[in-house]
Write a structure and sequence with these properties.
mainly alpha
Length: about 475
């Protein structure tokens, strides 16, 4: 259902909009957890280590696809908020062009650099072949991954966060079913997990296209919508490229952490892999609020309602603080039981590794929540400088913690990499929001946005 986020109680709208995103993200994380649960239970620690050792490579390409398409559809949401439905359709066609190019580039990079990246990650020889095959199969489906994120982004841009949820649930359940069949009954081993994911996302993309054609008439494209406008494409790329750079930096820092982790052996890899997946699940409410703010800020920026954005940011930060406390308490009291459930015969040392990391990171969840809120707000309003800067700050801190601290105090050193990076990144984007949005006059921000689109429309008319 299409929803206008420029009217009504801001916090209520954000929470209602974020709820389907949260449920969808939980299901997405659930099937990722199900992957390692199934692999760990059916194939053992070595197979689980193979999945986890090279996971940051796939994560890097995944977040680039997600952030790039998110930047493209931010413009779609802006045009919807401004009531420019022709602009919405033109945004769709320009986003499709950019996404096709991205898919080809990412696939080529992955295929030509995978072995080198795995060598950089210090993937142990005993699990190298399984890790390589696992990532290659997922990489072959890059165009499908980009397509699924782009289609979901279009729907969210129009204020509908429920429909992407339904497709995520559908995809998650398919993935679990195919993984069980291919691993348990067909004997595919580790690659069965990757093949199951590819089959599931292929079916989901086809269903998503068919559903949009039937139920979203505003997204039915006309011949004239495909007219190319260089200025309009630049507007999309001015948000999408900085967002993808920022997340690429984040992914690079995680790769560095994984490389250090891999050097300490398979048991450390297993404990850290499980703890990271659980942490990703625990922080999904914070991410959901940030993603809701992205659409909310984009629509209201297009409508010129800057005061609503400021009000929503304030209320979202307070809500994020409460959620952070709740998630921290759950992870502190139940973390060891959750980690142990992922293995048929849990090794106490593996459980200890995972618990030790979580006990440090859970104290910093609120800073991660601030990053999601401020970063998405700035990016959706076409102000990428501070989000990109925060990415470099996070990278520097993670490299310092993962390499320097790990060398000084052992593998516990890289436990501090993400928490310290969250603090540094949060301070940067908070400063960016304060100087670029909070302190500036509302009339100046309105004029800035309208001047840009007046120029784009003039160029389109001239063509």
């Amino acid at each position: 259902m299409i929803q206008d986020l420029t009217r009504g109680n801001s916090l209520k709208l954000i929470l209602l909009f974020s709820l389907p995103i949260l449920v969808g993200n939980i299901f997405q994380q659930f099937y990722q957890l199900a992957d390692i649960f199934i692999v760990g239970r059916l194939l053992g620690e070595k197979a689980l280590a193979a999945v986890g050792a090279s996971a940051p490579i796939y994560f890097t390409f995944l977040v680039i696809a997600f952030s790039f398409t998110g930047g493209l559809t931010a413009v779609t949401a802006q045009r919807f908020g401004a009531g420019d439905y022709d602009g919405v359709r033109r945004s769709v066609t320009h986003s499709i062009r950019a996404s096709l190019v991205l898919s080809v580039v990412l696939t080529l990079i992955l295929f030509t650099t995978l072995r080198r990246l795995m060598d950089v990650l210090n993937v142990p020889a005993a699990i190298y072949a399984d890790s390589y095959n696992f990532i290659m199969i997922l990489g072959a489906a890059m165009i499908l991954i980009v397509a699924f994120n782009l289609l979901s982004g279009f729907i969210r841009a129009l204020g509908d966060s429920k429909t992407p949820l339904y497709f995520l649930i559908f995809s998650s359940l398919l993935n679990i079913v195919f993984n069980l069949i291919l691993i348990k009954y067909c004997g595919f081993g580790v690659i069965g997990s990757a093949v199951g994911t590819v089959i599931a996302i292929t079916i989901s993309v086809i269903c998503c296209v068919l559903y949009i054609r039937k139920h979203f008439p505003i997204l039915r494209l006309k011949k004239e919508d495909w007219t190319y406008n260089p200025a309009f494409m630049r507007e999309h790329l001015n948000i999408a490229i900085p967002m993808s750079i920022q997340f690429s930096i984040l992914a690079l820092s995680i790769m560095i952490m994984q490389a250090v982790c891999n050097s300490f052996g398979e048991k450390i890899i297993v404990g850290f892999t499980i703890a990271l997946r659980i942490e990703q699940l625990a922080t999904q409410p914070l991410m959901a609020i940030g993603l809701a703010m992205a659409t909310f800020a984009a629509q209201n920026y297009g409508a010129g309602k800057i005061s609503r954005i400021r009000d929503a940011v304030k209320k979202s930060c307070l809500t994020s603080f409460g959620i952070s406390l709740a998630m921290s308490a759950i992870m502190f009291f139940f973390g060891s039981h959750i980690i142990g459930s992922f293995l048929d015969h849990p090794d106490p040392f593996v459980v200890e590794i995972g618990v030790a990391y979580m006990n440090i990171s859970l104290m910093f969840y609120f800073f991660l929540g601030m990053i999601f809120i401020f970063k998405n707000t700035l990016q959706s309003m076409g102000k990428p400088f501070y989000p990109v800067l925060s990415g470099f700050v996070e990278l520097g801190i993670r490299i310092f913690a993962a390499i320097y601290l790990a060398a000084k105090i052992g593998y516990t050193g890289f436990y501090y990499a993400s928490p310290l990076a969250w603090v540094g990144g949060a301070l940067v984007v908070a400063l960016g929001y304060y100087t670029n949005i909070y302190l500036r006059k509302e009339t100046d921000l309105r004029k800035e946005y309208r001047a840009l689109h007046k120029k784009i429309k003039a160029m389109a008319a001239a063509e």
